[in-house]
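USER: For my understanding, would you kindly supply a protein sequence with its structure tokens?

ASSISTANT:
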Amino acid sequence: MISFDEAIALIAANVKPLEAERVSLADAHGRVLAEPVSAAVSSPRCDVSAMDGYALRDADAAVGKSFRVIGKSFAGGKVPPVVGPGETVRIFTGAPLPEGADRVIIQENCKADDGEMQIVNEYGPGWHVRKQGSDFASGSTILPAGTRLGPRAMVALAGADCGEATVYRRPQLSIVATGDELVQPGTAHTRPASMIPESGSFGVAALAAEAGAQVTKRISGADCISTLEQAAGEALAAADIAVVIGGASVGEKDYAKTMFEAHGLELIFAKVAIKPGKPVWLGKAGTKLVFGLPGNPTSAMVTAALLLRPVLARLQGVESGDVQSWRKLPLAAPLPATSSRETFVRAHWGSDGLTPVSNQDSGAQAALVAADWLIRCPAGQAEMPAGASIDATPF
């Protein structure tokens, strides 16, 4: 077995980014930039007003002084007239600052009547002008390669006048859930008690979608090697990475690796010294990746969060080590001692810190709902008291 950190290093060394493609702004959300984005325009494109008020020369400004109103300036409107001594232009937020003016007095400090404006209140030090390029200049890099285009980045991308972006292709992922005991959710109550709803693929599919992948195929396969070999071929043909859930241990019907051997499976790693999730594995079959998850739902979801997310990140040009954001956080309740394997404890966040969920069983499903953090515990760690600082990452 290898350590968790060794597994992350092997992912970084063996998983390469997919090819890049050009997409429209409308299709760019959630994608990862393969090239940096440079602004096509400055922001603002010219000096503009930050408030509604009156644009004038600062040299003329004084409480009690009157000015002749010679025009108006609106955002998107025509070029306002040039402002000279004793003159002002009525201006609105986002509108171009007239030539000659360098200051805006907000309307609350002014009184206007019959083409005249008088400054009636102290107007303070603010000039209320957004200078050309004060946000970013034309040609400057506003988003580096490797940026995932979330909602805030999309604002910057559009604001830079970019109608398209060069991004990494979205990974295509297929899922094979194995096990004679599995039936489709909604049907188990009509079957013998030995049959259970197949739940793991739904969680893995949701996690993969949140990580930027497209789930192209989902297959449920009974524990029959010929059936599973066919399913493996279909999964590889339909995706960049095939994820198989279950069959990863050493039982009589654990065929997860065997089913891909006929397709040229080469293992990158076979087991990781973590709890839960020791049987997790990664390999290649030709140009495709194969990722094996344990069958127990909690084990599958923890290992998918810890190791499948970095694989999907690498396929999109993100460094695998940048996926988990480990933070020092306080414990709100005692943390039990750990075994001989590095352990990832499911926990939930409250006002006093992190509390381990009561059911840490690898088959628990209801407890997953409450678990929004993973606590990283070294092998052989003693019990930790409430208030202790621990390493954790969002689950």
Summary: The first strand starts at residue 20 and ends at 24. The mean pLDDT is 95. The two ends are 24 Å apart (CA to CA). The chain is about 20% helix and 30% strand.
